[in-house]
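Researcher: Please translate sequence to structure tokens.
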Amino acid sequence: MSKKRDDVKEDKPKTGDEMSLADLLGGSSDDDGPKRVDERKDEPNSGMLRLSQIVVETSLESAKTPSLMPPPPGPVSSPPPAPVAAPAVAAAQLVATLPDFQLADRDGQMKSLQDWPGQALVVNFWATWCAPCRREIPLLQQLQRDHGPEGFQVIGIAVDFRDKVLAYADEMKIEYPLLIGEQEALDAAAAFGVEAVGFPFTVFSDRQGRIVTAHMGELTAAQASLILDAVRQVDSGATSPEAARASLEVVLAQLPSSPADAD
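Model: Translation complete:
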């Protein structure tokens, strides 16, 4: 005599359309990254969290960034070793000058990158849930201390919830300016012209607001030193942003791509 089994309703994983902003940006703050983001082992730079794998339910339809696609369901895997060559951003993808957008600073005041005129900017996109971003902050702090007096200005753009950013910034005693946003910060990253951005993502400009180069991934001190030297050359008139960028792509490819590889 057979027994009648009760139907068991299985929970299905949420699709990208069903995920809320809290599902995507409110992940755990451990080294494995945020929830519901798949760091694929067969792709280079997968230790960096790709904006093309992040979707925000609200305002996605109106966003002008078609590369922001929902992540596939499933658990987060451990990132593979960093690639040998430093991640290069193709010159054809970058816009020529710093884009004009506004985000709230730590005091809630709206600021744009044009609020630092006459300074060579180091614009760093990051998030509290991104392990390489967190590791990079001490280097950025040191760059600001060492090179701020000569006209360089580090600006962090956090793609995260405001309360988490403020708490982490206080904990780490971040001294350089921070701009904070959620979807609007994603839009700001896309405004630089790069279709698939990984975290951390850092853009370097000269004093005139012309973009010299962009680096995708965790910076090393050696990489930062070479890039700042190139910005100085551009500022002095010795070379153009385009020529400096081409030279940097060759030189940076010969360096270790992460601090771990440099050790």
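Researcher: Any highlights?
Model: The first strand starts at residue 49 and ends at 50.
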